[in-house]
Amino acid sequence: MQGPVALICPEPIRERMQGIGIRFWEMAELLRKQGHQVMLWVPNEDIPPEKTPGTASLWGPALRRFLKEAVAVVLHGHISEIYFDLLRQENLGKGPPLVVDLYDPFLVENLQYTPLLGDDVFYRDRSVLFRQLLHGDFFLASSEAQRLFYIGIMVGLGRLDPNLYHEDPTLREFIDVASFGVHPLSAGQLEKLPGKLKGVIPGIGAQDIVVFFGGVYDWYDPMILLKALKQVVDEGWPLRIIFCLNPNPETTPQKKLMEVRRWADALEWTGRYVFFLPWFPYEDRFHYYRDVDIAVSLHRPSLETDLSFRTRLLDFLNAGLPVVVTEGGEGSQKVREAGCGVLVRPNHREDLREAFLFYLKNPDQRRLHGERGRQWVQSHLNWQRALEPLMRFCANPRKRPSFEATPAQPTSLTPPSLLNDLQKFQRHVKVFGWKATLRRGLEWCCERTRHGGRV
After folding, report:
1. Which end of the chain has fewer CB within 10 Å, C or N?
2. Nearest to 298 by CA among 378, 372, 227, 374
3. Which comes out higher in pLDDT, residue 241 or 414?
């Protein structure tokens, strides 16, 4: 049995879990299989009985005791502020080796909500992220693009220095890619599951074509789907479009979902062509996907798209679903690589309509793309492979030298070392002579005075 590992998750672990909750649940399961003693700490107390072993609320005193014995901590998002406060309160110094999971780029995601919540959200998020980047010992990103984004920030913060670079020029031992994963599911296993859509939900029949969108967040583009499919529905195709209600509406703005509801209600599509279902339990998701014919992941162009990994896409592929995906971002690159879907240009309604007509008129292509996606995701992104960097670090966790610089006081690009200044002076004398060096020194002093002491 290896030393205790604390996973501190910012999302509730309940019967119905979202992406980061699922991710931390799978991390915990895999670390246990590697022989680690793992506790998953969550912000809710209503933990289902079947998930209670190895899972606990972070609000009690137990987490404080566990941290004193832990050999590593893994956390994500704003929950890090609670962790850093606990270290201070318990006099634990810098704490155990810290893994910061950067999978969800909350700094960029939450920019979508600043018109509603105010600009303070961005500055709070930036402060939280910078603190994590300054104090983490190992970092996990969801993609290569995201990894470079965070490395760039660390350069600006002074976290990346020559010592760190020369220790590992790839920086893989400092920040690596650990995307989402799947548990491989065969077509035969899927077929044996009882479906929970066709013939179960009133208004969805066995012969209907089910289009699955899923949860609605402000960076997605559900409206272009509805508008593109209106003409398809008018042509007589029996489409049934599925949206899912957010399980944590108290912490997630619902503006985009309300827009979808108003549109569907105005056309009297709700309960006829458009269905709003509760968020289903993680363990039940394939009972729903087995009844889906086409899955979609549609977004508008943005920095969020470039940096995010569309978690739902992997489950779509694992279930053998053909997908229609907006070009841009890591998700569309995976679909292109796997050859398992149709990519459409952002904001092009006609592209989207044609993509659906292609699939509706070519069921063999739907099956072909679905099987390609299943094979690709199961060979490339099973959980064991996706989380290998985390397993590697936790097998030999180590604390990096403390780093005290803060964004408000960045480390100097040229440390004010007397030895450094003397070496510069000697080089100038050797190259330019005494007189030229003294003249340049006087010019530098005058320049510094003219700019208020800055050059």
Report:
1. N
2. 227
3. 241
